[in-house]
Amino acid sequence: MSDAYSSGYPQNPRLTRAGLRVSGRMVAGLVGLALLAGAFVYAGRREPQALADAGQPEIGGSPVARAGQALPQSGIGGDGSATAAPRRKARMPAQSPLRQQFEQARDLYAYAQSLRSRADAGEPEAIWLLTRVYDYCANYSSAPVDYGNDTRAIAAMNMRSSKAMAAARTRVSERCARFVPEDNLNFPMILVKRAEAAKAGSLAAEASLLAAGKPLEKTEDYRTNLVDRVVRSKDADAFSALAPVMGLAANGRSSIGSAYNRVAGTQFAELAWQLAACELGQDCSPKGSLMTSYCANGGICSQDPQQGFEDFVYDAAIPRQGADVVQQMVDSLTGEERMQ
């Protein structure tokens, strides 16, 4: 599983073609990861007209460097020309101390233990963050020996992304080292805990359940209301959790499109929601949980170890012609005015 709130990233096909022995558990984990990385894998398959249909100008050029393909270096477009992405410093409102501790903790088992009494008392933030720990560590904890063997095999392949992917997986192994298979960090358990967090009042958990196809309510009115509550909350975790269902999954849903038609229904819209989460304070740094999970679980790694998620997206997933459009989407989401 991934830190992207339900399951995040596709298997890198070059790994299999190159003959890597991948354990059954690793395959199951990689196949299960299908949220934000879908923007990298599938954005290139959509027609440019899709953005025009969503109220955006047509974007030319190749919209994505797919998983397993060589990604451009920071600041350089796929054609070798300098990019001119309208990047800016995030506003970075203060995250809660518990969220900061999740990103900074070297021992996530100890961090999880520190949350348990608060989670048992029904504190929604504590329950939510426990599920983030479980999600981040699930692949490793299900088979630590196999995970380490696979990491060494990836490092030995000497592919362009091998070093970065092995480093990310090592980071996961170190932070999750005290979890074992008996902890049963599986997806059904995580969904149960997220439902508990959502019912206790965690908006991020509520959004993650919608992304996982298990919303608290199945009506369109509920879906519309949830999207609106997330936008108004300016909760970075909730934005990130909601991102997958605001991509292609929202295409054709009038209940979402009517209110947020410019930021729903395309894979670029999905990226915009995640970029908005970065601006709102989510840790999108090079070694943060988001970038680590992309790389460790799916081989979607930046070639620049100092590159965070925002620069990575503008370099690898958005053509130069579309950068202004995506930034406008982000501005709309992080601003005070509702989309019209």
The whole-angstrom Rg is: 19 Å
Biggest sheet character: none
Our count of domains comes out at 1
Quick one: overall form?
A: globular
Mean pLDDT: 77
Helix content: 40-55%
Strand % is under 5%
- Given as residue ranges, the uncertain stretches (5+ residues, pLDDT < 50) are 1-92, 336-340
Pattern of helices and strands: HHHHHHHHHHHHHHHHHH
Helix run count: 18
How many beta-strand segments? Answer: 0
Structural class: mainly alpha
Taking the alpha carbons of the first and last residues, their distance comes to 36 Å
Explain how this protein is built.
By secondary structure, the chain is mainly α. It has one domain. About 55% of the residues lie in helices and about 0% in strands. Helix 10 crosses helix 11 and helix 11 packs parallel to helix 13. The longest helix is centred in the middle third of the chain and has 19 residues.
Q: How would you briefly describe this protein structure?
A:
By secondary structure, the chain is mainly alpha-helical. It contains 18 helices and no strands.
Tags for this entry?
globular, single chain, 0% strand, mainly alpha
Topology of helices and strands:
Layout lengths: L12 H5 L6 H9 L5 H5 L6 H5 L43 H8 L3 H13 L3 H19 L1 H13 L5 H14 L11 H14 L2 H9 L8 H14 L2 H7 L11 H7 L6 H13 L9 H10 L10 H8 L6 H12 L6
Helix pairs in contact: 6-7, 7-8, 7-10, 8-9, 9-16, 10-11, 11-12, 11-13, 13-15, 15-18
